[in-house]
Amino acid sequence: MRELAGQRVYFSLTLRRGETAPTRSTVIAAIGVLAPLARNPPSDSFDGYLASAGMNFRLTRGRVLAVEQPPTRYHAFLERAAVKLNELLSAGVAAKRPELTAVFRAMMLGQKHELSDEQNAEFMHSGTMHLFAINGLHIGVVAMALHALLAVLRCPRPIAAVVTLAVLWLDVDTTGASPSAVRAFILIACFEAALVLRRPVNGIAALAAAALIVLVVEPMALFSASFQMSYGVVFAILSFGLPLAEWMAARFALFKDLPEATWAWWQKFSATALRWFWPVLGIGLAAALVSAVSGPEYFHVWAPGGSARTSCLCRSRCS
């Protein structure tokens, strides 16, 4: 069966009592039932999802027999870092409020399996489960925080780019390197490259470059719901949401006939709040446009008035 070497396999393995899950890059020996996927599975089935992700076989009723080769030093370091982060997020909280510890770990490290059934139901029904996915939102917040810190330290631009990307990749890889997080990292890397090379930063150009890199490495990603929804939403935000927000901010500006120096405190507060409101509205409308098409297509769900939330939730599920 030499032709099976290198094939991608979806598997679930049973561990012995007290045995921990193998670290990534560990070579293991396992036994189970290996079956090929259907040649043309329905697109809305789990087999269809596996086929679109490039899987060819499914291993069922499997169990680990032995560890043939230990993990690499790099992945062992990531495992120790993940354990340390878990300890930090549990310090002072685990004994008194274990449910909060589960929320912290799920939100910061993507460990959604630690949420209880009640917590899962609450966050799912409220449409906020996407907060626990290590995706573009998570990576973007970390990148902005790093940029702000390095700007305060007056770090040179090339060094700042290297430090930002190094820390971001450790964050992505420590939390499991989910496809959505890797795509967000590549997009930020394209932005950083433009800044270092002193080229005009263009969101759509960076998005196209990131998509091209992903497809060169993994062409089958083009047919996955995660890829289509992620890039579709970001493209809609860049090409429609943000320009719409700029137009609305200029069209409906408050007190534009009064010099800003003469504004009272409540006028300044109102104008600032409105300037923050227009981008939120534009981004929400752009996400709603994409989810109005992708939601019914992939998940048979259409939620008028909540399409932006549905889009985020669907992307966190399919990622």
Low-confidence segments, given as residue ranges, are 306-319
Which percent bin holds the helix content? 55-70%
The end-to-end distance, rounded to whole angstroms, is 32 Å
**Major beta sheet, strand line-up:** 1-3-2
- Major sheet: 3 strands, mixed
SSE string = EEHEHHHHHHHHHH
Question: Strand tally, please?
Answer: 3
What does this 3D model show about the protein?
With 319 residues, the protein is mainly alpha-helical. 59% of the residues lie in helices and 9% in strands. It has a three-stranded mixed β-sheet with strand order 1-3-2, with no helix packed on it. Helix 2 (73-90) packs antiparallel against helix 3 (98-109), helix 5 runs parallel beside helix 7 and helix 6 packs antiparallel against helix 7. The radius of gyration is 23 Å and the shape is globular. The two termini are 32 Å apart. 26% of the residues are buried.
